[in-house]
Every structure is written in C-alpha cells, then in structure tokens.
C-alpha cells in the first residue's frame, strides 16, 4: 500500500518500465459532493515485458477531490479480475500433468527443462539435494529407468503473487522395481515461478510417507532386539 508521494512515485518508476497503455472497458462515475467524485469499473492495460506484449485486465476505483480548482486522486485501488485468479489456478494445477507427461518421454533433458536454472530438487529416492540443471538431469536419468507414472491423490494449489505459485499434497507413482510393478506414495511440494512467460519449477520437494519410515524403524528395532 503506497501512502506517500515518494512511495507512489517509486511504484510508477517500476510500472512504467512495462510501457503500459490503458483502456477503460467499463466505467461508473458518481459525484459524491461538489468537490468529491468516484470512478470505478474495469480497465485493460497493454504491457511489454522482455520484448513480449500482453494484456492485463483489472478492476479499478479512483476517488477524486478538488483542491484549488484541480481534481486530484486521493484513493486509487486496482486489483486483478477474479476470473484471472481462477484461470491461473487452473493453469498451475495443470503443470503437474505437464511434468508427468515429460516423465513419459523417458528423456531426462525434457524433465530437467521444466526446472528453473536456479531450481532445487529434493528427490524421493536420492539423498543428494540437486541444485543445478546438470544434477537434476542426472537424478532423472536414474529415476526414469523405473518407468514412473504419477497421479495426484491430494493437491493444494495457492497463488502467492503474479508470478509465483505452489502446489503441495500427496502423489502416487506406478514404477517398475526389478521388473515388478509397484506403487510408491509420497508427499510433495512444487514451487513455481513464471520466468519469461513460462511457469518453471524453482523448488521441488518429494519425501516418503511417514508411515513407511516408521515401519522401517520398527523393523530395524526388532532386528537389533533379536541380535541382542
């Protein structure tokens, strides 16, 4: 929230870099007093970022007050359209299927390409934290030998900003272990960031279900008791 002239100027220093051009789609003007008025509705901006043009639609309200014969903005609210948020949720939800489809190609390069250059992977079946594209590709070179096919059991998608989102929950993989089909369930979190107009994975954490770990610990304790 910008409450000073300096803060407002700082915002527009960044916003103007997008070369915005606005068009009003719907306008509702009301006079609240002889020196007070409000204009609210919907507008669309054409923006240019990284050489690419895009349209952004939003709801707006301008509240004006007349000072010494000149109308000045005393309050300006601009927020994304609710439909845009719904569309973004659908888009982010579909990113898992894109990732899963890359697994089906059997090509580790195609899977690794879905991660940001600075992406981090904490994988299910490796103790090594992968922090470079080469390390992530190396992990999938081994993982894809299991012929994994993933399915979301429980998903929680949240939009954290215009270019950041997270999807966390539980998924199950059908894999081939020693030639035998088996299922592996794990908890996951994908954090996405839109870079160059494309959603990329900046953080992916996948870990075995606690019940499996607890079972393994109990079996180990039994073995130690027998050995004693």
Low-pLDDT stretches: none
Side by side, the strands of the main sheet go: 5-9-8-7-6
Largest sheet: 5 strands, mixed
Task: Output the number of helix runs.
Answer: 6
- Overall outline: elongated
Order of helices and strands: HEEEEHHHEHEEEEH
- Beta fraction: over 45%
Report the radius of gyration as a whole number of Å. Answer: 25 Å
Question: What does the model show?
Answer:
- The chain has helices spanning 5-15, 82-93, 95-105, 108-112, 133-143, 210-227, and strands at 21-33, 36-49, 52-67, 70-80, 115-122, 149-159, 164-177, 180-195, 198-208.
- Strands 5-9-8-7-6 form a five-stranded mixed β-sheet.
- With 228 residues, the protein is of the alpha+beta class.
Map the helices and strands.
Elements: H1 5-15, E1 21-33, E2 36-49, E3 52-67, E4 70-80, H2 82-93, H3 95-105, H4 108-112, E5 115-122, H5 133-143, E6 149-159, E7 164-177, E8 180-195, E9 198-208, H6 210-227
Parallel strand pairs: 5-9
Antiparallel strand pairs: 1-2, 2-3, 3-4, 6-7, 7-8, 8-9
Keywords:
single chain; 228 residues; alpha+beta; five-stranded mixed β-sheet; four-stranded antiparallel β-sheet
Task: Provide a brief overview of the structure.
By secondary structure, the protein is an alpha+beta fold. The protein has six helices and nine strands. The strands form two sheets. A five-stranded mixed beta sheet has the order 5-9-8-7-6.
